Amino acid sequence: MKINVYHEPGLEENHVDLHYNVLDEETTAIKQYLSTFGGVIAGRDEETERERMLIPGEILYIEVVERKTYAYLKDSVWRISYGLQQFMDEFGCAGFARNNKSMLVNVYHIQELKAQVNMRVNILMDNGELIVLNRSYKNEFYKYLEKRVAES
């Protein structure tokens, strides 16, 4: 794939154009990755009290623990000031789907889905973590995956 980068000092707004003749796997992955840059989220590391801006696409999953919401990246955890529904309303289009009552998973960071005997499904994430897809969210989760694949 050819990549052109241009510096244009007079440009009023940065933009990215993706040109393709066939929507192959590489182009689809780039398209999905670019769609995750819809905004940023303030995150705080509770151990070091460090703060940084998080891009929704880099978040593997979000979990509510003791009424606090945490964003899990490949190698760090950040507290964010969003509830799950509020996060879904604002960033759901970036690939997040609910897998249980207190968690959202970024489907673009799923390595594997593995069915279990008890009708549950294990989700293997990019960082090697195993997350359970609760059976009451299973149908909705798979519908979301089908929708994302159809959009690609």
Any descriptors?
152 residues; alpha+beta; OB fold (Dihydrolipoamide Acetyltransferase, E2P); seven-stranded antiparallel beta sheet; three-stranded antiparallel beta sheet
Describe the structure.
The structure is a single chain. This protein is of the alpha+beta class and 152 residues long. It has one domain: OB fold (Dihydrolipoamide Acetyltransferase, E2P) (Beta Barrel). It is 22% helix and 30% strand. The chain has three helices and ten strands, in the order H-E-E-E-E-E-H-E-E-E-E-E-H. It has helices spanning 25-35, 84-91, 138-151; strands at 41-44, 51-54, 61-65, 68-72, 77-80, 96-100, 103-106, 110-115, 121-125, 130-133. Strands 2-1-5-4-3-7-6 form a seven-stranded antiparallel beta sheet. A hairpin with a 2-residue loop joins strand 6 (96-100) and strand 7. The model has no long low-confidence stretch (mean pLDDT 88).
Q: Could you outline the blueprint of secondary structure elements for this entry?
A:
Layout: H1 25-35, E1 41-44, E2 51-54, E3 61-65, E4 68-72, E5 77-80, H2 84-91, E6 96-100, E7 103-106, E8 110-115, E9 121-125, E10 130-133, H3 138-151
Antiparallel strand pairs: 1-2, 1-5, 3-4, 3-7, 4-5, 6-7, 8-9, 9-10
